[in-house]
Structure to design on (192 residues):
């Protein structure tokens, strides 16, 4: 059977090969590797993970991926707060979580998981995998966590719309002066 005839499946990271597959797909979708037209129409990812950190994150909490045969074609990275210092680009998100009020409590006081990054590869977009990965993430994690928190560049309109469709609600915008970008912190409250 040819790989192209295999139906992609939504699953979780189960091997080092899966981690390497995430990194390969990430490289193809990094903002720095895309044209302005691709960024506007297809979205982008910002953070470039190191293998050792991504492997440790997945050993602690396997992320959700879509595989077509042996190839990772989409991913949704679950990140436990204990890794807050391992991905420097997310420092400002965790600082925001430490301060943002949500329903009368600081976000950091909830039992939360961070969405470290989500990406659907070219040729697999608009096929329901974004929503499917988030549903799988909720199935896997809602018994352990109150909510999922992430931030999205306000320039990434495709991602903002997709996250709203799944159930994320905006709670606060903040500026990351290091990246010269405004980020929107969004929460998907699984207790509701």
């Amino acid at each position: 059977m040819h790989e192209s005839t295999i139906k992609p499946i939504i699953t979780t990271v189960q091997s080092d090969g899966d981690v390497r597959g995430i990194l390969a797909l990430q490289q193809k979708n990094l903002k720095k590797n895309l044209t302005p037209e691709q960024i506007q129409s297809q979205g982008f990812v910002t953070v470039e993970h190191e293998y050792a950190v991504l492997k440790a994150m997945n050993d602690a909490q396997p992320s959700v991926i879509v595989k077509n045969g042996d190839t990772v074609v989409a991913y949704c990275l679950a990140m436990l707060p204990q890794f807050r210092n391992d991905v420097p680009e997310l420092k400002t998100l965790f600082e925001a979580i430490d301060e943002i009020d949500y329903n009368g409590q600081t976000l950091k006081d909830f039992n939360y998981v961070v969405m470290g990054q989500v990406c659907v590869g070219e040729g697999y977009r608009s096929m329901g995998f974004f929503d499917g990965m988030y549903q799988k993430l909720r199935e896997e994690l809602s018994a352990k966590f109150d909510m999922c928190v992430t931030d999205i560049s306000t320039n990434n309109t495709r991602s903002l719309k997709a996250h709203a469709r799944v159930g994320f609600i905006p709670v606060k915008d903040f500026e990351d002066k290091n990246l010269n970008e405004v980020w929107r912190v969004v929460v998907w409250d699984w207790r509701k």
User: Anything to note?
Assistant: The chain has a mean pLDDT of 89. The first strand starts at residue 9 and ends at 12. The chain is about 35% helix and 30% strand. The first helix runs from residue 16 to 29.
